[in-house]
């Protein structure tokens, strides 16, 4: 029986329904009832076979002016009470309530980080939404791929209202086939991206560099034939004049011929697609090897079916032999410098070919032949520029400091990031090192995590060296250094009588192990990770941090310790427990450009640390490479000292505007003088 409901009851029910709908906003609704409950997006994970050789493909740039909405409470996520911001909507009449609008949103440049383009976002570490429209001249029997140079650090891509793909982990490219989603006009492309980082992400939430967020690299729409070449790797075999490699294809039947051509080397070879959509090859070619002195690049063409891709590739070999590094079979010294991916003279992230050309040209002016591109993968332009300038390159993923080594999701992000970096740059002759970690403290989970990454790297690309910036047992080392410094101090007129008493106590506490003055100090690298890498790389801050630690421990003034340390550093002998080349991957000191005097933060003190460090290095047979920290001052949230740092790390040899400090010339003189030749045999 249907019971008529009076008007009053009806209004009461409508009111209850309305309130119960809004209640969760204020009440403590359970998670799944909350109107902010986020719909689990069913976007597919990106394919692990990277679409490579990007710069030779038919591509429509989607760089330029986009719209941006800031969303610190993630109300734009589909399924939230506010309806989500995954498509562009405009009110159809005066009664339609919308609480977001892309057409009236602010403009932002892509590529580039959002932190330095929007004043309020400088320190922002959360979600933003990007939107733009684009048209496509759709050609039948072609496929269309959205390609992103990087999205920092987690992104979801929506096209014409559909969730297309999610990518976790920044700094590396990904692409997705959108052939079924694109239309000729007004494609509505929306991307949510956040630069949140935490204990489980890669990198973690605490980094000594700026967590630049957003669409930080190029965005392209790439057109391929129905069946196409996904990627290809070529490398010079151990024997000169022999090229090995493989081509990965998509949609090509087994038996399809694949032609690899290097006209400048009188080489043309035909391989065949196998049952795994791969074509493996090995053929002779008249190659002049690539080197910093002669960065020879060859035009290489790979064709199969209707597809043709091209690249400019250099060929060389890199290997280690005991304590030596051999480039094209000859011993070489890595006269390096570390960098971050920031341009000279402009705020924010570097993203263009020109940005990298300017930055790496300054490294060449230093007399460097090697760059440690710390601490994460740079844009594809970096290795391209290094190939052209003749700079050897160390590329790295941000397994930095205290990583959640026991978290499988964290390992998944790290493996994905390393795999994409290698698949993107495996044809770059300049790249000689893949680095899998920086200053990670020893533990069993850390060893398992890094061992997995090292295995991945060797399986993906056996032609390059593996390294990681190791961390010593600093506490133990500092105890030894303190004892040596104490012995040194007793023969010096720098310490006061009181301070000499302290040094005597230190030596008494060390007992029979008390060092003999002038005997030098042997620092032996024993990190077990040294067993798994090809280059034993080591960060040390003698002359900077260690002086403060020792002053704090002993109560001797930092002034005395710093003065003694500068005299003591040349007596340090660094070696390792492994018969492998050693690279000092970091040393340095901070200085604000223009500051003069004897104390910290002056150019003079920074130059004195470099003078002491290069003396130590010149005395060492074991050190085959150095990448001092760092070419250019860079933004860092850890570095707040007003008037000096102002949220920049000041260890650069140049400041953010390219102003060279005195230490720049100390290192340049070292590279052009004592370290100008190659390593002795
Ligand atoms: C660490 C770390 C760098 C950091 C540097 C510094 O070793 O690897 O990322 O910027 O030291 O303290 O300046």
CATH superfamily of the largest domain: Glycosidases
Quaternary state, please? single chain
Q: How many strands in all?
A: 32
Biggest sheet character: 8 strands, parallel, barrel
Give the termini separation.
Answer: 102 Å
Total number of distinct structural domains: 3
Q: Determine the CATH topology of the largest domain.
A: TIM Barrel
- Rg, Å, rounded: 29 Å
Beta-strand portion reads: 25-35%
Q: Provide the CATH architecture of the largest domain.
A: Alpha-Beta Barrel
Strand order of the largest sheet: 21-22-23-24-25-27-29-30
What is the molecular shape? globular
Q: Give the ligands present.
A: alpha-D-glucopyranuronic acid
* Uncertain residue ranges: 1-5, 8-42
Average pLDDT confidence is 91
Binned, the helix content reads 10-25%
CATH class of the largest domain: Alpha Beta
Pfam families: Glyco_hydro_2_C, Glyco_hydro_2_N
Organism: Candidatus Paraluminiphilus aquimaris
Family: Belongs to the glycosyl hydrolase 2 family.
Protein name: Beta-glucuronidase
Q: Could you walk me through the main structural features you see in this protein, from its secondary elements to its overall organization?
A:
- It is a single chain.
- The strands form eight sheets. This protein has an eight-stranded parallel β-barrel with strand order 21-22-23-24-25-27-29-30. A six-stranded antiparallel beta sheet has the order 3-2-4-9-6-7, with no helix packed on it. Strands 1-10-5-8 form a four-stranded antiparallel beta sheet, with no helix packed on it.
- The radius of gyration is 29 Å and the shape is globular.
- Residues 1-5 and 8-42 have low confidence and may be disordered.
- It has three domains: 54-225, Galactose-binding domain-like (Jelly Rolls, Sandwich), CATH 2.60.120; 228-314, Immunoglobulin-like; 321-472 and 525-542 and 577-672, TIM Barrel.
- α4 runs parallel beside α5, α6 (474-490) crosses α7 and α8 (545-554) packs across α9 (558-568).
- With 681 residues, it is an alpha/beta fold.
- 46% of the residues are buried.
- Helix content is 23%, strand content 27%.
- Alpha-D-glucopyranuronic acid is lined by residues 208, 375, 438-439, 539, 586, 629, 649, 651.
- Alpha-D-glucopyranuronic acid binds at residues 208, 375, 438-439, 539, 586, 629, 649, 651.
């Amino acid at each position: 029986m249907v019971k008529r409901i009076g008007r009053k009851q009806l209004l009461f029910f409508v009111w209850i329904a309305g309130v119960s709908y809004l209640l969760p906003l204020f009440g403590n609704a359970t998670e799944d009832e909350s109107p902010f409950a986020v719909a689990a997006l069913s976007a597919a994970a990106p394919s692990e076979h990277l679409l490579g050789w990007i710069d030779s493909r038919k591509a429509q740039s989607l760089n330029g002016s986009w719209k941006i909405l800031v969303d610190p409470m993630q109300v734009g996520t589909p399924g939230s009470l506010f309806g989500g911001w995954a498509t562009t909507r405009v009110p159809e009449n005066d009664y339609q309530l919308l609480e977001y609008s892309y057409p009236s949103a602010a403009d932002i440049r892509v590529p580039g980080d959002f932190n330095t383009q929007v004043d309020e976002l400088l320190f922002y570490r959360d979600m933003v939404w990007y939107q733009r429209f684009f048209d496509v001249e759709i050609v039948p029997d072609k496929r269309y791929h959205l390609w992103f140079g990087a999205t920092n650090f987690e992104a979801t891509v929506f096209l014409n209202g559909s969730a297309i793909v999610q990518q976790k982990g920044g700094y590396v490219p990904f692409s997705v086939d959108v052939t079924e989603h694109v239309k000729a006009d007004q494609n509505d492309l929306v991307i949510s991206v956040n630069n949140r980082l935490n204990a489980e992400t890669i990198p973690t939430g605490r980094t000594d560099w700026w967590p630049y967020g957003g669409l930080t690299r190029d965005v392209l729409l790439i057109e391929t034939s129905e069946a196409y070449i996904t990627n290809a790797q070529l490398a010079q075999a151990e024997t000169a004049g022999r090229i090995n490699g493989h081509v990965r294809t998509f949609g090509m039947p087994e038996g399809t011929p694949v032609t690899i051509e290097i006209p400048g080397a009188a080489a043309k070879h035909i391989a065949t697609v196998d049952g795994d959509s791969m074509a493996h090859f090995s053929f002779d070619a008249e190659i002049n090897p690539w080197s910093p002195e002669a960065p020879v690049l060859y035009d290489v063409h790979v064709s199969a079916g209707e597809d043709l891709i091209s690249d400019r590739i250099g060929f060389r070999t890199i290997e280690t032999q005991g304590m030596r590094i051999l480039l094209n079979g000859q011993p070489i010294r890595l006269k390096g410098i570390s960098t971050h991916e920031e341009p000279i003279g402009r705020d924010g992230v570097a993203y263009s070919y020109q940005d990298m050309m300017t930055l790496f040209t300054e490294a060449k002016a230093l007399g460097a032949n090697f760059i440690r591109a710390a601490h994460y993968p740079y844009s594809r332009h970096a290795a391209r520029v290094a190939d052209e300038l003749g700079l050897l390159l160390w590329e790295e993923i941000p397994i930095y400091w205290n990583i959640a080594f026991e978290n499988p999701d964290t390992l998944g992000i790290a493996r994905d990031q390393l795999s994409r970096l290698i698949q993107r740059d495996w044809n770059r002759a300049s790249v000689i090192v893949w680095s899998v970690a920086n200053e990670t403290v020893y533990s069993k989970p850390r060893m398992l995590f890094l061992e997995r990454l090292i295995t991945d790297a060797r399986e993906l690309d056996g032609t390059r060296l593996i390294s990681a910036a190791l961390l010593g047992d600093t506490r133990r080392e500092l105890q030894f250094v303190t004892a040596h410094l104490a012995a040194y101090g007793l023969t010096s007129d720098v310490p006061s009588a009181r301070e000499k008493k302290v040094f005597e106590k230190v030596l008494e506490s060390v007992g029979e192990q008390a060092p003999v003055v002038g005997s030098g100090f042997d620092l032996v690298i024993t990190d077990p990770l040294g067993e798994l890498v090809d280059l034993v790389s080591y960060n040390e801050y003698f002359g900077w941090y260690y002086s403060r630690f020792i002053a704090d421990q002993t109560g001797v003034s930092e002034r005395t310790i710093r003065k003694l340390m500068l005299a003591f550093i040349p007596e340090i002998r660094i070696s390792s427990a492994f018969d492998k080349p050693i690279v000092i991957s970091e040393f340095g000191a901070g200085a604000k450009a223009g500051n003069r005097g004897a104390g910290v933060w002056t150019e003079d003190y920074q130059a004195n640390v470099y003078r002491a460090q290069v003396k130590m290095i010149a005395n060492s047979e074991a050190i085959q490479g150095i990448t001092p920290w760092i070419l250019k001052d860079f933004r860092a949230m850890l570095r707040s000292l007003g008037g000096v740092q102002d949220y920049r790390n000041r260890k650069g040899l140049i400041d953010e505007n390219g102003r060279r400090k005195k230490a720049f010339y100390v290192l340049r003189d070292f590279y052009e003088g004592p370290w100008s030749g190659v390593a002795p045999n």
